[in-house]
Amino acid sequence: MSRTPSRSSHLVPRVLAAAGTLALGFGVLTGTAAAAPQPVRGTPAHPAVKVATAATGAKPATATTATRPSTLTLGAPVCGTLCDGAPVTDAREDRLADGTTIYGRSIELHLSDRDAMGWASINNGDPTDEVWLDRSYDGGKTVADTKLGDATIPAGKRGTTTAMFNVNDPDHQRTGVLRACGKAGNRDDVRCTAWTGVERPNTQGTPTKRAVEALVKLYNRDTGLWNTTGWWNSANALTAVLDYELATGDRSYDWIIANTYDKNLHAQGGNFTNDYIDDTGWWALAWIRAYDLTGQQRYLETAKYDVDYMWSTHDDVCGGGVVWNVNQRYKNAVTNELFIKAAASLHNRIPGDSEYLGRALNIWQWFRASGMINSDNLINDGLNGTTCQNNGQTTWTYNQGIVLGALTELAAATKDSSYLTQARELADASTGSEYLNPDGVLTEPCEPNGCGADGPTFKGVYVRNLGELNAMLRGRPYQRYLQRQATVSYLRDRNRFDQYGVHWAGPIEAISAATQQSATEAQIAPLWGRGSNQG
């Protein structure tokens, strides 16, 4: 086991020491706002998704690449509970069995294990893109049926879904597996998911443990990223796994840390940087978590590199702050909040540091005076580039959350409790907002209209940071709120395989690694510092 670093003044080790094995219990299971459609993140010209495979160019280990089938091979229709070609609306459940990407398109295999049927979908695509199912009765060695349900994205749409097809052939007593395949309409390359058959759910372990296991099932060992979500979302998925290990002491998933690091250190701009400065901030925080867990210096050094890179974009536009993108001088909340938290976190882990604390305080003082915190103590997306005033864009949940973790780290760094007082004012506003919490359930403003690729990650970020603050406060004032999010999502937004969708209040929809990460964080957040007398 790696050495345990000496970090006497920062949050996580103190929380971890208090949590210990208490967090392994069932504990967390106790007891929509209208918004006009906007681009996810509310930031200009942000890609709909920064896909995982684009980071490395590597093929997912669970996927296969092939040329487009030149002929259609279809056996006789198979009938089980339903017959081949049944509509997806007839499915009794939905398990996201696997996913892969090709040229930015997300290809997914879904199974209704109760019906022993599956279907394929393609998203983030263009008209003429195709998706279909293949079926095999020998574990994938040969293909019995190909191009099942072949579907093409229609004009004006970004995705489509096949009909349902049987996995097994009961009439001939054949056990089968399915895979989803797809292609871009203007390319011949084909990408397929892994072959997958009917499964039974795991009912052992706590809700938190099972949520993490379901998240890990979507992890791709070959790319070191998560299938069905993007680059920066994968940083948050890794953070969720690290949060689980830190909060519970369960080190089952340590292998993911090194694998993710080694497979992606030289991806994109190298050292987990790219043109999007917020992306860099997410990875910096993930590697700080990895350092907390393992004590490996290389993770801390990478986090330092990332924070230095973020700081290099600091300028005087609108009076200060770091930028959202190196090619666009937009000043927004998420990027600056991430910087404050990451820089303050580094200070709390580097003996004798003054530089990172000075930078964190510089950006916090600017941010607090920038106007992004509105009169309701909620934080809008950013500043108008012309007027440098609050742009009035969406109050995304993650913008309400990151600042809480940032102020918690600043309080630990400075020993100044006024930062916790400020954090409580902001947390009271966001937890008490009916807009963000209709009927008391955290709801992303984009949920009524679809949250795209980015939005499903946001709520997990919020509860993670609120959990960090809650663990540092006497009396744990947000414990009931956090417990409610964990309980409601478990009861209303979870399938038999412990996969969670985008709506914590239900119904279960749009399952992905991003929605799984968010709901996993909802299960973890009440565990931080459980039983602690600190604060």
From TrEMBL:
The keyword rRNA-binding does not apply. Residues 1-35 form the signal peptide. It comes from the Bacteria. One of its GO terms (biological process) is carbohydrate metabolic process. Keywords: Signal. The keyword Signal applies. This is Putative alpha-1,6-mannanase (GH76 family).
